[in-house]
Design brief:
The protein is α/β, with parallel strands linked by helices. Among the domains are: about 1-150, no CATH class; about 170-285 and about 325-370 and about 410-510, Alkaline Phosphatase, subunit A (3-Layer(aba) Sandwich). Helix content is about 40%, strand content about 10%. The chain has helices at about 1-20, 25-55, 65-90, 105-125, 130-140, 145-150, 195-200, 215-225, 230, 250-255, 295-310, 330-340, 365-370, 385-390, 400-425, 455-460, 485-490, 570-585, 605-610; strands at about 170-175, 205, 210, 260-265, 280-285, 350-355, 430-435, 440-445, 450, 465, 475, 480, 515-520, 530-535, 540-545, 550-555. The strands form 4 sheets. The chain has an 8-stranded mixed sheet, with helices on both faces. A hairpin with an 8-residue loop joins β13 and β14 (about 530-535). The protein is globular, with a radius of gyration of 27 Å.
């Protein structure tokens, strides 16, 4: 068991290397040690069984020495984790294990196993002259002070500039997966967000706002860069972008003397994507520390396999009982306010992502009582992935969809109260607020749930803008977009943009006939691309698959918001004109949907699968 401390220390240091942006904690080592001790206990019977078999076949000799027995136990404990980490590197998004069909990974696994045996043998050569008891004590105790030493934190990057004395704070608050027509200030017939409605009375309320994409990472990156996904390059199958090639507003704030931080509610926005660039603080730990270790990765996959093969162990699409890849708004906002109220006198820029309205829809009892109507069907907050729905192979009908939306409405009501309490702690005389969403959600429209398309329920999002000290609210009907967020954030702080964006400053004059683009390149099949171009009341939809032959649809979304009637055949003139607009717009940055389209191994593939993206 003494070796468990050493293994836990090595695993913890590996986590610190990957997640060096996170504030260190001794909990990482403590949790990891507990897991490795569990592994050691689990492998002890196997070690004893193998030793008994060896005694019947061999003259044990030195093999019976306590150190040798301990080394064999170490080997059986560490080898499964090492082999799993190696083989897991060959799997891709969506649990794709096609790469394991050839001999290379297995030959390398055999070589790895042989190398582990050699390494343990060499370790014994070094240690076998030592007394077993002092060695066991050292291995058990020494990792603790070492783990404690690496918890010292430098406090993040140093300031890059000096802000002017009257510079306002700037908050970008993203309600993930929030459709505009489910909110009180956007005319919903249920009072889901009364506090947001009061806030909107002192803000610019944009009634014709569209998201840039329908995937969390790509949309957030576009809000921070002011460019489209096919420009910054991130997509579902490519979970990173190059911040040095596509700058974000965060660097502008840093260089202007602001302190910068982000607090996110989902692992989809993990720092390894590059989104943390120029943030002094990037708080993305949504699950316990131990879930980032190599040891936990093995537990995760065992759980996943068991859940697929043993129906009783299935958990509504989530195979985990500790890890769910997200955290509630209460925790995110508490961390954010703690940072905001810190003793740093500099003005601040802060990104806050709140994931509560995202699937699964599991509202608290008070909210459920207010919004969830009587229902006796099979659907629950897990929608299409619920155990009962999947077991019966059901398609959700209108009553089921209404129930799921009730649960969603209840989530929004709770989130509204959390956000109101948070905003109440800010000095809004000195703090500008941009509140929006990355995309919407479907509840039965065109037979769909969640956000896998470019339907109106997916693309129409809220956007509220309150400059620091503002008390004048008004409705803005001109079309606006997610790419407008970046230049607007800078304008709120009085900063100039030093890089090109495709957005406009929402504080300035807006064009009533502006063209907007939504890109959905976030599919498991990278060749599947869906685009939506808006001009006035017209919406042109292009769907392109592996055959590279686009299909076109045209809708008048003012007269037909549910997109029930495709009028492309009747209005070929409009289709032709908008196709030209689409081509000219995307040619500005050389959009290439084949670029970086290969399905790759990504660091948070498990999170994407658990949150429903892997099945796109």
């Amino acid at each position: 068991m003494a070796w468990s401390s050493v293994l836990a220390l090595a695993d913890s240091l590996a986590v610190r290397y990957v997640h060096h942006h996170r504030a260190p904690s001794l909990w990482l080592f403590a949790e990891t040690l507990a897991l490795w001790l569990a592994f050691a206990l689990a492998t002890l019977p196997w070690t004893l069984l193998v030793d008994r078999a060896l005694r019947g076949l061999l003259d044990m000799g030195k093999l019976g020495h306590p150190l040798h027995a301990s080394a064999r136990h170490l080997l059986w404990t560490a080898l499964p984790v090492a082999l799993h980490a190696h083989l897991d590197s060959y799997t891709a998004l969506g649990g794709n294990v096609a790469a394991l069909a050839n001999a290379t990974p297995w030959l390398l696994a055999l070589a790895l196993a042989f190398g582990c045996v050699i390494a343990v043998g060499l370790l014994l050569k070094v240690l076998e002259r030592m007394s077993a008891r002092p060695l066991a004590i050292a291995c058990t105790l020494l990792p603790w002070p070492i783990a404690w030493l690496v918890t010292f934190h430098s406090g993040g990057p140093s300031p890059m500039g000096l802000a002017r004395a009257d510079a306002p704070n700037v908050l970008l608050l993203v309600w993930d997966t929030t459709r505009a027509d489910s909110l009180t200030p956007y005319g919903y017939d249920r009072d889901t967000t009364p506090e947001l409605a009061r806030f909107s009375e002192q803000a610019l309320r944009f009634t014709n706002a569209r998201s840039v994409s329908t995937y969390t990472l790509t949309s957030h990156l576009s809000m921070l860069t002011g460019v489209y996904p096919s420009h910054h390059g991130a997509r579902l199958t490519r979970q990173f972008f190059r911040p040095w090639a596509t700058p974000t507003v965060v660097r502008s704030f840093r260089e202007a003397g602001y302190r910068t931080a982000a607090f996110v509610g989902t692992d989809v926005l993990r720092a390894q994507s590059g989104i943390n660039y120029a943030f002094e603080t990037y708080d993305d730990r949504v699950d316990p520390w131990v879930t980032s270790t190599h040891a936990w990765a093995l537990v995760h996959d065992v759980q996943s396999l068991l859940a697929k093969r043993v129906p009783a162990l299935a958990a509504n699409g989530n195979p985990h009982w500790i890890q769910d890849f997200q955290r509630p708004a209460s925790e995110v906002l508490a961390r954010a306010i703690e940072w905001i109220e810190g003793d740093d006198p500099r003005p601040w820029f802060c990104l806050v992502n709140l994931y509560d309205a995202h699937w699964p829809y599991l509202p608290e009892p008070e909210a459920r009582e207010r919004f969830v109507r009587p229902y006796e069907g099979p659907a629950d907050g897990y929608a299409l992935r619920g155990n009962r729905v999947r077991a019966a192979g059901l398609r959700l009908g209108p009553e089921d969809a209404r129930h799921v939306r009730d649960l969603y409405d209840a989530e929004l009501w709770s989130l509204d109260r959390e956000v109101d309490a948070f905003l109440g702690q800010l000095d809004l005389e000195r703090t500008a607020v941009v509140l929006t969403s990355d995309h919407g959600e479907a509840f039965g429209e065109h037979g769909q749930f969640e956000h896998r398309d470019v339907l109106e329920c997916h693309t129409r999002v809220p956007l509220l803008l309150r400059p620091a000290g503002s008390t004048l609210g008004r409705e803005v009907r001109e079309p606006v977009h997610g790419v407008d967020v970046a230049p607007t954030l800078l304008a709120l702080a009085g900063l100039e943009s030093w890089f090109e964006t495709y957005g406009v400053n929402l504080l300035g004059p807006l064009a009533p006939e502006r063209v907007l683009l939504v890109e959905n390149r976030d599919n498991m099949d990278p060749s599947l691309v869906k685009l939506a171009l808006y001009e006035g009341d017209w919406k042109l939809v292009q769907i392109q698959g592996a055959d590279r032959r686009p299909q076109w649809s045209l809708y008048d979304v003012a007269a037909d918001p549910l997109e029930a009637s495709d009028v492309a055949a009747e209005r070929a003139d409009v289709v032709g004109r908008l196709r030209g607009e689409l081509e000219r717009l995307r040619s500005r940055w050389g959009a290439d949907d084949e670029r970086d389209g290969r399905v790759q191994r990504v660091g948070n593939a498990d999170a994407l699968n658990a949150l429903g993206y892997g099945g796109k």
